[in-house]
Design a protein that fits this description.
mainly alpha; 434 Repressor (Amino-terminal Domain); 2 domains; 58% helix
Length: 131
């Protein structure tokens, strides 16, 4: 038996203490639009996700087949077909180093500060800066 997504979503909205009107307000749509969504046996995943954000409910547990199919499509597009051997690794943090031949950032910073100090001293000597 196929799920009627609209009816199930409607029930979950009410179970969580919300109304069609409040959901419509938060989504900036007319309440009739929300009613149309909830009268449909198939509701788009994007719409389900938006409603879930409004009522603070994760529909993944209610409609795992929608989210699983979405994941399979993404994997198909990327060529992943063997889920048993997928290993997720966090990249190791790497230090950013200066390229060979470039002065280090310290040398650049010191030169910049020396130049700034020289210009500031020149302005003070000319009297263009008040102390």
């Amino acid at each position: 038996m196929n799920k009627h997504y609209g009816k199930l979503i409607n029930q979950i909205i009410r179970d969580n203490g919300h109304s069609i009107i409040s959901v419509a307000k938060h989504l900036s749509v007319d309440k009739e639009v929300v009613k149309q969504w909830l009268n449909q046996p198939n509701v788009e995943l994007d719409t389900i996700t938006k409603i879930g954000r409004v009522i603070v409910h994760d529909f993944k547990a209610d409609f795992p087949e929608l989210y699983f199919e979405d994941s399979v499509e993404i994997c198909a597009e990327t060529g992943i077909d063997d889920f048993d051997h997928i290993e997720i690794k966090q990249p190791e943090p790497q230090l950013i180093t200066a390229k060979t031949g470039d002065p280090s950032w310290k040398d650049k910073y010191i030169r910049l500060m020396e130049e700034y100090n020289n210009r500031l001293t020149e302005k003070l000597e000319r009297g263009s800066l008040k102390s």
